[in-house]
Amino acid sequence: MYIFLIVLFVIVCILLTFLILIQSSKGGGLAGTFGGADSMGAVFGGRGAGDFLTKATGVLAALFMVIALLIGLLTYGEVSQESLVEQERDQRKSSATYTLPQAPSPSSPDQAPVPASNPAE
């Protein structure tokens, strides 16, 4: 359900952005990019394009808000009190095994014991 809502939310966001950009404003918007404003008027009629785009934008905006609220309600109880940094640190601590290198034994023939130096001498 959560994945479905996220996918639907992204689709609504893309469509809403496209509809907002396509609407003609004082500068013409992007409506003229796709064949000019006259072709949009031919498809929907003189004022039909503005009314259709306005209603579609309102519907998509309402869907945007409803889906955002649903996603928020679904994830409400899943909030962790621990920060992401603390979670990552704990995960690394539990998965890492630390081994310290062994000190060479003094009976090794390759290494002679180093005498302790006395700075008072």
Description:
- The chain has a domain at 8-22 and 31-76.
- The protein is 56% helix and 0% strand.
- It is an all-alpha fold.
- The model has no long low-confidence stretch (mean pLDDT 76).
- It is rod-shaped and about 100 Å long.
Query: Helix/strand-derived class?
Result: mainly alpha
What is the overall silhouette? Answer: rod-shaped
Estimated radius of gyration = 34 Å
Overall average pLDDT? 76
Q: What percent of the residues sit in helical stretches (DSSP H or I)? A: 55-70%
Question: Mind describing the biggest β-sheet?
Answer: none
Beginning-to-end CA distance, first to last residue? 80 Å
Q: Name the helix and strand elements from N-terminus to C-terminus, one letter apiece.
A: HHHH
Strand content: under 5%
Instruction: Count the E strands.
Output: 0
Query: Which ranges are low-confidence, i.e. pLDDT below 50, for 5 or more consecutive residues?
Result: none
Helical element count?
4
Give me the secondary-structure topology.
Layout: H1 2-22, H2 37-44, H3 48-74, H4 84-95
Helix pairs in contact: 1-3
Please sum up the structure shown.
The chain is mostly helical and 121 residues long. The chain has helices at residues 2-22, 37-44, 48-74, 84-95. The chain has a domain at 8-22 and 31-76.
Q: Which features characterize this protein?
A:
121 residues, 4 helices, mainly alpha
